């Protein structure tokens, strides 16, 4: 241990009085720090807003997307975000809190977005996820279905799919499933 | 039993510790003092699994006499092929306790103190008692936790607070051993980019077009459980739960004409079991424990600082010095001490940050571990935290507490420890 201690002492002299980290009291975790930075660097635009049920807990929040164009225009879609302490190694967990008719979102609220799972990388940030989520409403994707029926509808008859979207957003029933009313 | 002469038992170790070699540090004094330093060095082993068993055995046979081990797991039948300190009768018992008792029985004179529980149960006082910490873990999360704890403990005024961390890890035929001197050398967080996140299958593949038995298991785990047993918290150690997933996956496999779903595969997928090979564990554990011996005694130079071992195609090892990341969120910017007036408002404090030469923070957001002090964006959070600006520091934070500050003008974040004047 001799060498290590003398290294430490040398560094101590170099850094002089500037002390090291505090003891006992809990430190801001790496995940919290990264989320603090990510939030600050978000570009939300007018179609998205975030709410924090507990402002002191920035790891859990709700993102609301209100598309101003496309088939889902006029709706208001809420997603819960849960970031764990292993962020950014682990991606955030995102779920839709309403029952909606969408080819890439199932009835339980699971979301099929590549960067939330197989293509997640720690260099990606919350902004990338949010942009991806917004894109799902502008361009629902029939080739990566999570709600098979909705994807089928989109593929076979785009116009009928659009009508189904309108019906579902108004709280109506599509293919025997009643959806939540999500109109703004 | 024949009484074993202790000096004979340790003869070869003492050969190394009682004379200098060509690579020994010139300040090192070989002899009884080194031996007693080794024997009195309290060392902590985190994890008593595949690597942990090897590490405990090696440390005991290297002359360490005061070993502690911490592990939260109990012994499973599938461990017995390589975790050689465990027997069939031990199934269900805590790994730390059984491993400690076995090595104590086998190597006379060594004291092994087990703790059954999570590393997060223990505080800095606990970790402070050790000279060296050796990790044989299977999770990145646990490594990140112990790393940031040890970096946080390193106090410039107290060299004893610097705890070398020796980390071993294996996956199949591959492995790595590294030595981390918290705050002095590259830490686990600096090296986080080197770990590829575990491969995942797209959710839509799982939901609609499974191709492999693993996809069926993932479906049962991720989708069917949620739909049908929403109110039961899933527990991967509960056999009934695993059984349910197994049957659901089997059913799914039939539907899609996919065969090969087995109970064992179900466990593997659900618990994300990493393939373990006994010999790889032995290689890596040997590397970590000989580093522990060298660091504890100074008899030879230690690893600087990363050894990778690749055994999947012949054998290849490569040792290099991983560099510290200047913007590492754990060790890149250690907390600076700042004395503040507790009667100052948060708003006034933020203004003073703009004047500090190293920072000149213009638009900072900041928090403590439990409280968001001020966050400039997104707007709703800004609104929620704005009232804090008028509050006094003394009402928002405790004396000596650490805050973390981010500013869009900087790619790095700042940490300050605020002492009240």
UniProtKB/TrEMBL annotation, chain A:
PROSITE patterns: UBC_1 (PS00183)
Residue span, UBC core domain: 34-168
Catalysed reaction equations from the record: [E1 NEDD8-activating enzyme]-S-[NEDD8 protein]-yl-L-cysteine + [E2 NEDD8-conjugating enzyme]-L-cysteine = [E1 NEDD8-activating enzyme]-L-cysteine + [E2 NEDD8-conjugating enzyme]-S-[NEDD8-protein]-yl-L-cysteine
Record SUPFAM superfamilies: UBC-like
EC number, as in UniProt: 2.3.2.34
Active site (catalytic residues): 112 (glycyl thioester intermediate)
First-level EC class: transferase
Gene Ontology molecular function, alphabetical: ATP binding; NEDD8 conjugating enzyme activity
CDD domains found in the cross-reference section: UBCc_UBE2F_UBE2M
Pathway in which the depicted protein is active: Protein modification; protein neddylation
Keyword Nucleotide-binding: yes
Domain of life: Eukaryota
Keywords: ATP-binding, Nucleotide-binding, Transferase, Ubl conjugation pathway
Family recorded in the similarity comment: Belongs to the ubiquitin-conjugating enzyme family.
Designated name of the protein: NEDD8-conjugating enzyme UBC12
Organism annotation: Aspergillus homomorphus (strain CBS 101889)
From TrEMBL, chain B:
Gene Ontology, cellular component aspect: cytoplasm; nucleus; protein-containing complex
E2 binding domain mapped to chain residues: 338-421
Keywords (A to Z) from UniProt: ATP-binding, Ligase, Nucleotide-binding, Ubl conjugation pathway
Keyword Nucleotide-binding: yes
Pfam family, one: E2_bind
GO molecular function, one term: ATP binding
Pathway(s) per entry: Protein modification; protein neddylation
Signal peptide: none
GO BP terms, alphabetized: protein neddylation
Catalyses which reaction(s): ATP + [NEDD8 protein] + [E1 NEDD8-activating enzyme]-L-cysteine = AMP + diphosphate + [E1 NEDD8-activating enzyme]-S-[NEDD8 protein]-yl-L-cysteine
Superkingdom of the organism of origin: Eukaryota
SMART domains linked: E2_bind (SM01181)
InterPro entries (UniProt xref): E2-binding, ThiF/MoeB/HesA, ThiF_NAD_FAD-bd, Ub_act_enz_dom_a_sf, Uba3_N, Ubiquitin-activating_enz
EC code: 6.2.1.64
Catalytic EC class: ligase
Function: Catalytic subunit of the dimeric E1 enzyme, which activates NEDD8.
Family in the record: Belongs to the ubiquitin-activating E1 family. UBA3 subfamily.
PANTHER family named among the record's database cross-references: NEDD8-ACTIVATING ENZYME E1 CATALYTIC SUBUNIT, UBIQUITIN-ACTIVATING ENZYME E1
Record's protein name: NEDD8-activating enzyme E1 catalytic subunit
Species of the source: Aspergillus homomorphus (strain CBS 101889)
């Amino acid at each position: 241990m001799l060498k290590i201690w003398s290294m430490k002492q040398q560094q101590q002299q170099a850094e002089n009085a500037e002390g090291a980290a505090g003891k006992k009291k809990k430190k801001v975790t790496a995940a919290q720090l990264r989320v603090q930075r990510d939030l600050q660097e978000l570009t939300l635009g007018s179609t998205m807003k975030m709410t924090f049920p507990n402002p002191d807990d920035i790891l859990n929040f709700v993102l609301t997307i209100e598309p101003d164009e496309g088939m889902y225009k006029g709706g208001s879609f809420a997603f819960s975000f849960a970031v764990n302490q292993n962020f950014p190694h682990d991606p955030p967990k995102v779920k839709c809190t309403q029952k909606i008719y969408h080819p890439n979102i199932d009835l339980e609220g699971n979301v099929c977005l590549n960067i939330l799972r197989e293509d997640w990388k720690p260099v990606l940030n919350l902004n990338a996820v949010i942009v991806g989520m917004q894109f799902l409403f502008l361009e629902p994707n029939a080739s990566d279905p999570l709600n098979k029926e909705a994807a089928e509808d989109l593929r076979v008859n785009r116009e009928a799919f659009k009508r189904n979207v309108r019906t579902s957003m108004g709280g109506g029933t599509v293919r025997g499933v009643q959806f939540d009313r999500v109109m703004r | 039993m024949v009484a074993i002469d202790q000096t004979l038992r340790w003869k070869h170790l003492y050969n190394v510790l009682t004379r200098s070699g060509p690579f020994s540090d010139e300040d090192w004094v070989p002899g009884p003092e080194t031996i007693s330093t080794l024997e009195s060095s309290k060392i902590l082993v985190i994890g008593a699994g595949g690597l942990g068993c090897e590490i405990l055995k090696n440390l005991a046979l290297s002359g360490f006499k005061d070993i502690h081990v911490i592990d939260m797991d109990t012994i499973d039948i599938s461990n017995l092929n390589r975790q050689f300190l465990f027997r069939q009768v031990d199934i269900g018992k805590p790994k730390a306790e059984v491993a400690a008792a076995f090595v104590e029985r086998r190597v006379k004179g060594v004291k092994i103190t087990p703790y059954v529980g999570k590393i997060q149960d223990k505080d800095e006082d606990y970790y402070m008692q050790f000279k060296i910490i050796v990790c044989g873990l299977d999770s990145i999360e646990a490594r990140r936790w112990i790393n940031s704890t040890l970096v946080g403990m390193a106090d410039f005024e107290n060299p004893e607070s610097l705890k070398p961390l020796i980390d071993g890890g294996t996956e199949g035929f591959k492995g790595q051993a590294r030595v981390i001197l918290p705050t002095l050398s590259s830490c686990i967080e600096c090296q986080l980019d080197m770990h590829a996140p575990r491969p995942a299958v797209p959710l839509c593949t799982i939901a609609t077009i499974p191709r492999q038995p693993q996809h069926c298991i993932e479906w049962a785990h991720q989708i069917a459980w949620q739909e049908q047993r929403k109110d039961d918290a899933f527990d991967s150690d509960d056999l009934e739960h695993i059984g349910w997933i197994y049957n659901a996956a089997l059913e799914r496999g039939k539907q899609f004409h996919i065969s090969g779903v087995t109970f064992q595969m179900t466990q593997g997928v659900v618990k994300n079991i990493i393939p373990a090979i006994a010999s790889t564990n032995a290689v890596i554990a040997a590397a970590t424990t000989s580093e522990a011996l060298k660091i504890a005694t100074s008899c030879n130079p230690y690893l600087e600082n990363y050894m990778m071992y690749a055994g999947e195609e012949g054998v290849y090892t490569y040792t290099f010095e991983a560099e510290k990341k200047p913007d590492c969120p754990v060790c890149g910017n250690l907390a600076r001490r700042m004395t503040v007036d507790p009667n100052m408002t948060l708003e006034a404090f933020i203004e003073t940050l703009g004047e500090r030469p190293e920072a000149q923070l213009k638009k900072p957001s900041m928090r403590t571990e439990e409280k968001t002090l001020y966050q400039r964006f997104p707007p709703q959070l800004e609104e929620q935290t704005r009232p804090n600006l008028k509050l006094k520091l003394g009402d928002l934070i405790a004396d000596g507490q650490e805050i973390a500050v981010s500013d869009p003008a900087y790619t790095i974040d700042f940490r300050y420890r605020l002492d009240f004047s």
